[in-house]
Amino acid sequence: MLGVIGLTGNILLFPKLGGVQTVLLPLMGQIIASMLIDTFGLFNAPQQPFTLLRGVGILILISGLICIVVLPEMLNKRNKRPSVETSGVKLPYQLFGIFAGMLMATQSAINGHLGIILHSPIHAAFISFIVGMTLLLLIITFALRNVTNIRLAFGSGRPWWIMTGGLIGAMFVLGMAALVPIIGTGLAVVIGLFGQILCSVLIDRFGLLGAKQTPVTGIQLLGILLMVLGVILVKVF
Asked: Are 106 and 37 spatial neighbours (Cβ–Cβ below 8 Å)?
């Protein structure tokens, strides 16, 4: 349920906040929630004290995120007017973006404990997707009343990889369910975020999966290095 709300929320936020904030705010929410879960041992997660160096590591991680996501966009738009779709009152949407990220981190902690109870992270991922699919089916059937749009994903002219998102998502949920009981929610989420950022940079750099090819800037490389340093501080301390 939390995964459905978090992912759908990100899709709805994009036209309101633009790409940069839609990426950054949920990531910040994930970092905040994962640290709270670890510090207080919520959802039976292994409790880890919040040390000064871990706090410094989180700040460095956030600085890396800003270097990768925010600063390049600011430099590109320095002399441009803000777009219409991102203007207006944004605070409620920004707060929801952080909240959506917190839900995603909470989902990882819950699935991790579910995997312990079931003695199988695979079964935990299975239950997670069954609940999410059921909820989405109810929304599509009774709220949107439009099931036929699903057929648009099939047919000629569609890229071969268009249906692999569910497979990748299943691998991600399974990986988090397996890792959280071993290394804790905070580190699992942080490593996952680093992987997301690194992969998104590679997709932009080489124009993969239909994305527009965009060169990697020096400040983005600096951001990646900062994130590596932040992960090390969170892991070791």
From this structure: yes
Tokens standing for 126?
A: 């299975």
What is the rounded distance in angstroms from the CA atom of residue 60 to the CA atom of residue 228?
A: 9
Mean pLDDT over each residue of the chain, to the nearest integer: 83
CA 180 → CA 46, 88, 131, 160, 183, distances in Å? Answer: 9, 39, 20, 32, 6
Q: How many angstroms separate the CA atoms of 193 and 111, rounded? A: 17
CA distances from 216 to 80, 125, 193 (A): 21, 34, 18
The pTM score is 0.76
Residue 25 CB contacts under 8 Å (≥ 6 apart), including other chains: 13, 17, 94, 97, 98, 100, 101
* Dihedral Cα 152, 155, 159, 161, nearest 10 deg: 80
| Two structure tokens written together for 195 | 């992987």
Please provide the distance, in angstroms rounded to a whole number, between the alpha carbons at the two ends of the chain. 33
pLDDT in tens, 67-101: 877 787 777 777 564 443 444 567 888 889 889 99
Residue 94 burial class via C-beta count within 10 angstroms: exposed 0-12, middle 13-18, buried 19 and up: middle
Distance CA 41, CA 35 (A): 10
Cα Rg for the chain, rounded, in angstroms? Answer: 19
The sign of the CA dihedral 80, 82, 85, 86 is: positive
CA distance 167 to 145: 26
8 A C-beta contact, residue 73 and residue 19: yes
pLDDT digits (tens, 9 = 90+) for 7-40: 888 778 877 876 667 777 888 888 889 888 988 9
